[in-house]
Amino acid sequence: MSIVPPITTFTLAGRPVSRVGYGAMQLAGPGVFGPPKDRAACVAILREGVASGVNHLDTSDFYGPHVTNQIIREALHPYPAHLVIVTKVGASRGHDGSWKPALEPEDIERGVHDNLRNLGVDALDVVNMRMFGNIHSPAEGSIEKQVAALAELKHRGLVRHIGLSNVTSAQVAEAQRMTEIVCVQNHYNLVHRTDDALVEELAAQGIGYVPFFPLGGFTPIQSSVLSEVAQRMAATPMQVALAWLLHRAPNILLIPGTSSLRHLRENMRAAQWDLPDAVRAELDTIGRAREAG
Question: How far apart are CA 226 and CA 75, in angstroms?
């Protein structure tokens, strides 16, 4: 039996968004630091993406820093009413491009104001509280101070909705006791399956789950099984990896990033594929093989 193609929209921050969005991280220079080589090409990617149906845009003012938000503003401001821009706070950049925690209340407020200024808005649609954890994986511990600081900025009208990033199930529950959480952004993809249970927990609550590194991040997913499936489907391996995520759970929202128009167009076609049960089972062996290894 075949699984029908996945639903194409999900409600985020009270608005329906396409489940294939766009992550702006790669609009900055190498190492997500400094300006891009071709700023005009970055503007073109954003404009084509939104014109083609992208209405969930993921960014942060520490990308660059400031660079991606300034490019987004140049490309899209004034923003379409249907566009949901999700940003994040919790880090800063050193002069050498290093990543530094910025988790004190004054850091969080500064980060919100940086995003407001560079995006050119009076209030931010969604702000994810990005915990540092173990860089790309969460570490247990209270996040009360950080969530309280962001909730205060929401009370002041600078933030409309709050999300979390790089967090555990226990940290999500702690934050929910303090304020509404509309999305969680963690490391998850066809190979990296640590958050399987959390995906299900959030789906049951109608909360969006946004995988970062949906295609493997700085080291793209490589698998002979994935390549063989893609060849049979007349798709690229990355399209199949994205299609698997869309079929995995209805609350998964994709934000693949790219600085290539060709890759943008390929990514946006990921929702067109139906993955039969047998194909999904075949792809599931990739994650299980990694865990066993």
Answer: 35
Fold of 9-218+249-271: TIM Barrel (3.20.20)
CA atoms within 13 A on the CB side of 116: 15
Q: What is the 3-state secondary structure (H, E, C) of 6-31?
A: CCCEEEECCEEEECECEEHHHHCCHH
User: What's the pLDDT tens digit per position in 263-289?
Assistant: 999 998 888 888 988 999 999 998 865
Rg (CA), the chain: 18
In contact, 171 and 132? CB cutoff 8 Å: no
pTM: 0.94
> Quick check: is 63 catalytic?
yes
Question: How much helix, strand and coil, in percent to the nearest 5, is found in the chain?
Answer: 45, 20, 40
Other CB atoms within 10 A of residue 155 CB: 10
- Give, in degrees to the nearest 5, the angle at Cα 100 between 38 and 142: 130
Given the residues 63, 79, 188, 209, the one annotated as active site: 63
